[in-house]
Amino acid sequence: MNRLVCPVDQTNLVLSKTAGEESSKCPECDGVWLTLETLGTLEDKAANADMVKGQRQYGKHEVDHDCPHCAKNMIRFRYRGYNLEIESCPTDAGFWLDKNEEREIRDVMKKRASNLARASSAEQSWHNARRGVKISLLQRIKQLFGIN
Ligand SMILES: [Zn+2]
Ligand SMILES: [Zn+2]
């Protein structure tokens, strides 16, 4: 298996398995590399239909970071219209989330949590039963980063 390096500081990434999903983490900057497969798995487990509907990438532009997968310039984009920018391999082999983005995920999480608090519990259990899942994508990402 090829050794993956951080697109920001070229440190070797360390394999980690958190919340049952495989990811590669940079010990230097705490960025995280997710494969398309892992992101897909997380999205499949998302409890809310609005998270998985529609386009994944908005406002795409090329950045001067080498992809850990193919060493080509990565593409930066807004994730599903959230105020959350992540970078992807130009061939969609994987996705990079840096430390700042982790903070943005926290903000998204907070908004998400207050929205969920307003939703009736009946509606929630209906959603969960219908989709056969009990956990949202962002909760999964939260677990992945070990944010409580
Ligand atoms: Zn790094
Ligand atoms: Zn690549």
Structure notes:
This protein has 148 residues and is an alpha+beta fold. The protein has one domain (14-145). Helices cover 36% and strands 26% of the residues. It has 5 helices and 7 strands. It has helices at 36-44, 49-52, 99-118, 121-131, 137-145, and strands spanning 14-18, 21-25, 32-35, 57-66, 73-79, 85-88, 94-97. The protein has a 7-stranded antiparallel sheet with strand order 1-2-3-7-6-5-4. The longest helix has 20 residues, at 99-118. It starts with 13 loop residues before the first strand and ends with a helix. The relative contact order is 0.18. Mean pLDDT is 73; it is low at 49-53.
Mean pLDDT: 73
Low-confidence stretches: 49-53
- Can you list the strand order of the major beta sheet? 1-2-3-7-6-5-4
Kindly state the number of beta strands: 7
Query: Biggest sheet: strands, sense, closure?
Result: 7 strands, antiparallel
- Report helical residue fraction: 25-40%
Which of globular, elongated, flat, extended, rod-shaped describes the shape?
globular
* First and last CA, distance: 33 Å
Number of domains: 1
Q: Radius of gyration, Cα only, in angstroms?
A: 16 Å
Instruction: Please give the count of helices.
Output: 5
The SSE string, one letter per element, is EEEHHEEEEHHH
- The proportion of strand residues reads 25-35%
Structural class: alpha+beta
